Amino acid sequence: MTTFHEFTRTDFGIILKMMQEFNAIDNYPFDERERTESLNLLLENPAYGKLWIIRESEAVAGYTFLGFGFSFEFKGRDAFVDELFVLPAFQGQGIGGKAIDFVIAQAKRSGVRALHLEAEHHNERGLRLYRSKGFRDHKRFLLTKFL
User: Fold this and answer.
1) Disulfide-capable partner of 71 in 49, 78, 82, 119 (CB 3.0 to 4.6 Å)?
2) Would you say residue 97 lies in a domain?
3) Whole-model pTM?
4) 80 in a domain, yes or no?
5) Mean pLDDT in consecutive groups of 10 residues from the start of the chain, 147 residues
6) Residue 65 domain-assigned (yes or no)
7) CA distance 50 to 147
C-alpha cells in the first residue's frame, strides 16, 4: 500500500539521501548545505509548498515536492511538481502514477488552478506517465535566472 507522509525535521537524513540520488541521475550538482537550508525554509514557511515521503508498505519508496506560486496567465494559484523521485527498487510498480494522483488531489485541495512539472527530454517513461495524467507540453522553454 502506497502512503504519503508530510516531511518533518526527523526526515532530513532520508530526504537528503534521496535528493542526492535524484540529482545524480542527470549529473546535477548537489550541495547538502544548500538543500538543508532550503528544507529549513520550507519547514518555517509552509506557504512555500509541501514535501512528502512516499512509502510502500512502510518502506521508504521516494519523495515528491509541490511548490506553490501565483500566475495571472493560469488564473490564480498555481503549483509546480518540483521533484518526484521513486527509488530504483520501487520503480515500475505504479508508485509514480499514485504520486501524481496524490499531488493532483492535494493541489486541488489547496486551491491550485494549474499544475506544472518538467521532465528531462530523455525521460520517456516519465513523459508517458505525465501525459497519461493530463499534462501537456506548451511548446515553450523553461528559462531560469538564479538571483
Assistant:
1) 78
2) yes
3) 0.93
4) yes
5) 97 98 96 98 98 97 98 96 97 97 98 95 92 92 87
6) yes
7) 23
